[in-house]
Prior knowledge:
Elements: E1 5-8, H1 12-23, E2 28-32, H2 55-68, E3 73-76, E4 79-84, E5 88-93, E6 96-101, E7 104-107, E8 111-113, E9 126-128, H3 129-139, E10 146-151, H4 155-165, E11 169-175, H5 179-189, H6 193-208, E12 213-215, E13 217-223, E14 230-235, E15 248-251, E16 254-258, E17 261-263, H7 266-270, E18 275-278, E19 283-286, E20 299-301, H8 310-328, H9 334-362, H10 366-370, E21 377-379, E22 384-385, H11 386-394, H12 400-407, H13 420-431, H14 434-437, H15 451-455
Parallel strand pairs: 1-2, 1-7, 2-3, 7-20, 9-16, 10-11, 10-16, 11-12
Antiparallel strand pairs: 4-5, 5-6, 8-17, 13-14, 14-15, 18-19, 21-22
Helix pairs in contact: 1-8, 3-4, 4-6, 5-9, 8-9, 11-13
Flavin-adenine dinucleotide binds near residues 111, 131, 261 and 304.
Amino acid sequence: MSHDVIILGAGPAGANAALAAAESGLRVALFDQQPEAGGQVWRAPLPGLSMPSSPELSSGDALRARLAASAVECRLGRTVWSVGSHFRVDAVGPDGNEHVEAPRLIAATGAHERVVPFPGWTLPGVIGLAAATVLLKSHGALPGQRVVIAGCGPLLVAVAAGVLKGGGTIAAIADLAGPSDWLRALPALASQPRLLARGAGWALKIGGARVPVLFRHGVRAAEGDDALSRVSLAPVDAEGAFIAGPERVMEADALCVGHGLVPGAEVPRLFRVAQAFDRQRGGFVPKLDAEGRTSLNGLYACGDGVGLRGALVAEAAGRLAGLACAHDAGALTAATFASVSAPAREAIGQARAFSDAMADMMALRPAQVAAIPPETTVCRCEDVTRADIESAYADGARDMNQLKQFTRCGMGPCQGRFCGDVAAEILAAKVGSREEVGTFTARPPLRPVALADLLGSFDYSDIPIPPPAPL
Length: 471
Ligand SMILES: Cc1cc2nc3c(=O)[nH]c(=O)nc-3n(C[C@H](O)[C@H](O)[C@H](O)COP(=O)(O)OP(=O)(O)OC[C@H]3O[C@@H](n4cnc5c(N)ncnc54)[C@H](O)[C@@H]3O)c2cc1C
């Protein structure tokens, strides 16, 4: 094997794991489907685009410079579609399919976003809140000219500030949380003064632009003929259920909406490692020891893919997993491991209060799911509605794999990444608990890849044709 460890994901977690393992003397291959390292939060602009400076861009540039100066073999622009036994990783990149194997693997594949469906959420013009950060950071593009921003968590203010900075207008911000929720989180947020100051700067910009902020409001419906033109916002209670009160209809050509993130734990799940449901951390997450080891020997995991904790923790947890891997490979003595990993352990402890507060803000509110109307699409790849999910339950579906067999929910190109969490919540409300309904079984391809890329170029005349079987 040409590598000691393969790392999947070059965000704050995976890139720091790679640097720590390489500094300890391991031969490291680092994969990411993005052309540049940085992950979601420190995403690089598209090649040729220059973006105004920001703390995220500076952190990303610093990380990319450290990787370039390191011994890490960066295999960027490669989509990992399969991870098999002996940690054989298959990825499609510019030269077609390639594979590597190593005795150890660190999964740091981050999270994906959750949008709790509402009527009209599949209209052009409605995009995810997290997806909006990608548009703003990587493409330097606005989601629309007149934008409604809705959902929960810190991305609300981050996206709003980005839209204003790009010259867009915000019709309204609808936050599921109320001022009392933010006040309650304030002491925890103050434990990270730099991040709190950044958030406060965004809030001032939003206030200065006189953007209407509707606390404890959710999206009742998005409307328009061929594309979004109106968004109805209605008051909700602390659990996210709609309550009596005036509805506001906002004219808008874009709605950026998101209800937190879901850990992308497909790789640990492929190996059927022990996992547990943790609502605050975003859903089912692999069980890890304090240094990122899963229940399978040689498989480690870190970052938002193993529970939402944000970039600060992802960085430190990545470093810890990289060092643990080096220790287990015999490259670090126990004493060296203890001393070089101490700062990472301390950083995780210091960030805990902040990351817990943010995770609480983004946790799924079951009452919001209960309010999804029956005819609303939940799985948009396969057009499965809430009523379809409930009738599958009536027909006997009791877990996520049975739901998939009954309805095709989760069988489309996203493989259940976007619908799985909400569909599980709907089924769990009937069956009894999320633990009982479980998750879809993870299977390759982890991401959609073209068959032509897997086959590569070949000449039909070169294909050996076996002689006909004797009659
Ligand atoms: C779309 C999105 C936008 C976000 N924007 C922000 C933001 O603006 N500010 C903020 O504070 N937080 C943001 N977050 C939260 C943020 O992800 C975390 O706080 C932090 O980046 C976690 O770091 P990580 O290394 O664990 O994961 P990530 O940064 O998500 O990195 C994971 C990496 O794995 C790669 N990957 C995953 N699967 C594969 C595969 N099969 N093949 C190849 N590569 C793969 C991804 O391309 C990605 O680069 C965002 C999250 C999402 C999902």
